[in-house]
Amino acid sequence: MVGLINLEYNRIMKILVFTEKPFAANAVKAIADTVNSSGNELKLVEMGTREDLLEAVKDAEALIVRSDKIDAEVMDAAPELKVIVRAGAGYDNIDLEAATKHGICVMNTPGQNSNAVAELVFGMVVMMCRNQYNGKSGSELKDKNLGIYAFGQVGRNVARIAKGFGMKISALDKFVADEVMEAEGVRPVHDVDALFSENDFVSLHIPATAETKKSIGYDLVMKMPKGGVLVNTARKEVIDEDGLIKALEERPDLRYVSDIKPDSAEEFEKKFGARVFFTPKKMGAQTAEANFNAGVAAAEQALAYLKDGWNKYQVNK
Ligand code: 3PG
User: How far is the centre of ligand 1, averaged over its atoms, from the C-alpha of 204 (Å)?
Assistant: First the structure.
C-alpha cells in the first residue's frame, strides 16, 4: 500500500493533464476551474509526444491521463509526482508496480464515463443490425438475447439501455452476486460457454489483465447462435484475433464490432467487409458529458490526495 501523505497545503502545486486524445472543451474548462479555484496550477498538454510528456512531468505533483502509457520512464522523469489519476475506468496503460515502487498513488474514476460507453454499444449494434445502413432489410433488437460479460459500471448501463429495447438480458461476472443482477432484471450466468451459446449478442466489458488477454477466440465465438454479433467496447487485447478470424471465416453469419481497431484490422476488413466495423480511435468515452465527468472527478481526486491523502479509488497497493 502506498503510504498516505500529509503535505503542507500552502504552496502552489502543478497538476499536469496529459492527453493524447483531448477532452471536450467544456471539460478542459471545468478541470481548469477546479484546479485554479484550489489555488494550484494547471498545465495542459494535448496531443503531445512522449518527449513532451517527459518534459512536462518534471515538476508535476499530480498527473491526469486517459489511455496514455505511463511507465517507469515517465515516473523516473517526475521526481515530484505523488499521484496519477486515470480519468476513466481501465488502468492497463499504467505500470502499477512501478508506481508503487516510486511511492506514487494511482487512482481511476470509476463510473464517470460508463454511460457514454454503454450508449456506443447500442450505436454500433443497431448499425450492424441495419447492415451499416446500406438500405437492405435488417433485424431488430426486441426479444433478442443479450449476454453481458462483466457486470461493472458499463455492463449495468448496457443492461439498463437494453431493457428499453425489449431485449432478454443475462450477464456473467464472478465478482457480482446473483441477487445484484436479478435486482436489475438480469439473469445471472455462471459459465462463459453458456454466455456465448445462449446469446445473439455478446457485449464484452472485461478489463485487459493477464487472465483475460486473448481469452475471447475461436472456441467461444463458434458457440454463438446463428447471426451472432460480438461487441467489444472493452479492450482489443482481450481478443485472440487469429481465433476470431478463423471463426468468422467458418461462420459467414457471425459479425464483429469493436470500439478500436484490432491489430489485424486490414485483414478483418478485407476478408469480412461489412460484417465487421471498427472505430478508428477508442470512442466509447469520447463525449462532452463523459469527458466532463471523468475529467473533473480526476482533478478533484488528485487535489484531494495532495491535500490529505484521500485515496478511495486507489488501484495500486
Ligand atoms: C476507459 O477505460 O475509461 C475507457 O476505455 C475510455 O478510455 P479513453 O479515456 O482513452 O477514451
Answer: 14
Which of 247, 250, 271, 315 has the alpha carbon at shortest distance from 93?
315
- Among 282, 291, 313, 315, name the best residue to mutate to test ligand 1's pocket (greatest count of ligand atoms within 8 A of Cβ): 282
CA of 86 to the centre of ligand 1 (A): 9
Q: How far is the CA of 64 from the centre of ligand 1 (A)?
A: 13
Ligand 1 centroid–CA 8 distance in Å is 33
Tens of pLDDT, residue by residue over 164-204, are: 999 999 999 999 999 999 999 999 999 999 999 999 999 99
From CA 277, how far away is CA 279, in angstroms rounded? Answer: 7
CA triplet 17, 154, 312: central angle to 5 degrees? 55
What single DSSP character describes residue 3?
Answer: P
Judge whether residue 107 has pLDDT over 60: yes
Please tell me the predicted confidence (pLDDT) of residue 11.
82
Q: What is the pLDDT of residue 9?
A: 57
Distance, CA 33 to ligand 1 centroid (Å)? 23
Atom of ligand 1 nearest to the CA of 234: 5
**C-alpha distance from residue 61 to each of 40, 102, 261 (Å):** 11, 13, 34
Closest Cα to residue 162, out of 145, 175, 179?
Answer: 145
Look at residue 10 and tell me whether its pLDDT is greater than 80.
no
298: helix, strand or coil: helix
Q: Could you report the per-residue pLDDT of 111-164, keeping only the tens digit for each?
A: 999 999 999 999 999 999 999 999 999 999 999 999 999 999 999 999 999 999
Rounded Cα distance between 294 and 113, Å, is 6
Which ligand 1 atom lies nearest to the CA of residue 21? 10
Question: Going by C-beta distance under 8 Å and a sequence separation of 6 or more, which residues neighbour residue 169?
Answer: 146, 148, 159, 162, 163, 185, 186, 187
Q: Ligand 1 — pocket residues by CB below 6 A?
A: 21, 66-67, 88-90, 113, 282, 284-286
Q: Are 60 and 81 in contact (CB under 8 A)?
A: yes
> Which 3 state secondary structure label does DSSP give 223?
coil
